[in-house]
């Protein structure tokens, strides 16, 4: 039955029972009690063999070891982090070499007193520590005596060897006793408790050298006063180490605080730089939104800003659509491969659509990666981290913004909060452009109705504008005009004769040649047409075409009499307009044959028409199978820019 169970059952009562109750139960309590009993026996031996002939040195060593154990050196910030360095063992070892086994045990009263006064630990722990020191000193004394060490210590080889092994015995005994207690208390293997042995060498060296030097000094006959003076001088390096260790600990703590502050400051700087970059991107996007010629330009600018802002690998914008069997179509991207673009899908297709219905972003990164959520296209592209943001205006989902990494990445709160405004900016850009497109489609419908009205006034003009448009576009392609110029040419040719609405039907349908006055009215139709089209601000780019399509190469055209070469697009419409007029019936003449019209255009090259335009026109109508688009979708942003000079 254990001591604890005896106390609990009432078998041990009174003072012994209360004493045993101070120990922990089980094997640990028995172990500590055993160590304490051995220490008590050794202490009783020492008391019975006190060196009464040397009381001064005995008391001096007790006081010295008390002072030293009161302030051990904590090896903080060193390779021996977590260990203590104390010269108390060296003083006890000196007592062994000077006073013998009883002396080394008795001076441990100083160590025990320091522990009991300073450390607020349970009774059994303080008792165990004191007993372990007494036992270690007793074992060291036994080894020294058995190996023939002389008392008092003399500097012969046998005594040196005995002293060295005694110091080692002290350390090994102390480490073994303490490690055994820790092992029993923590239920850890003994070997894992002992851990690193590097610190033993430093302690051994300190005990051996300092103890031998103190013994030799005392035995040299300098007396107790000289011994204490020399001992104090020997202790000074120890206090120097203690002071340096204390300061190193303070410096280490301050360094850690500084590093933590620097880390927090760097984090704050990164967040601030990200925010500044986000604001700059938003500002640039706003400027682009107000000045860009097309929605594509605005979206491409936003996508580039997204990739640059957080270092993503790809970014793409998808718009909602109902036709074609797919819910979203890609309208802009940065970094996607050609293979991905052959069958593009949102990276988190189904999951993103569900999140978009709640107007919230969807994040999948290294912290919650699930390949099952990826679309097949995203899997083949090798995406590892994806953030999908809904593009919403007034609660209506119009599309989504994908931001993707092909390497492991975790989206921070700062990154997400800075990407949201860019997604909103894209939403606004798309919404605004859609409103503009609807508005201008309305304008175009109205103008087309006016064109139809003009053609209805004169049966000979029916289909004229559409034919001129087709011929003009094809001629422009022969001249390798860019997309924007083709767009302007397309619209300019379609509406070139809108000013005819201001010409009386009597003039339009007159079977004879017009009088000078009637020609004056007829020549005003480009000006009237320009005035009508100027009401649509985004069609400013086609106004020169409407006004100048009757100018001539020699400068004798109307309404301004400028050289036709100054406006290439208007010159193209002029040639195509003339050809269509010559090959159509008029009230005053029959239509010319194709060959006749071509011949007249050739003869007028350089006088009425621009030669380069004539060559392109002839190539278009004679040497190519012309395929004219039957359906045309107006992109309003293109028409806002002025045409590039030829």
Attribute tags:
646 residues; two-stranded antiparallel sheet; disordered N terminus; 26 helices; disordered C terminus; five-stranded antiparallel beta sheet
Description:
The structure is a single chain. The chain has 646 residues and is of the alpha+beta class. The protein has 26 helices and 7 strands. The chain has helices at residues 3-9, 14-20, 26-48, 55-70, 88-99, 101-106, 108-118, 123-146, 157-186, 190-194, 198-219, 223-291, 295-310, 338-342, 349-356, 376-381, 413-457, 464-478, 483-494, 505-508, 516-522, 525-533, 543-548, 568-582, 594-603, 611-622, and strands at residues 73-74, 84-85, 314-320, 328-334, 362-364, 385-393, 396-405. Helix 5 (88-99) packs across helix 11 (198-219) and helix 12 packs parallel to helix 17. The longest helix has 69 residues, at 223-291. It starts with a helix and ends in a 24-residue tail after the last helix. Mean pLDDT is 76; it is low at 1-17, 75-83 and 624-646.
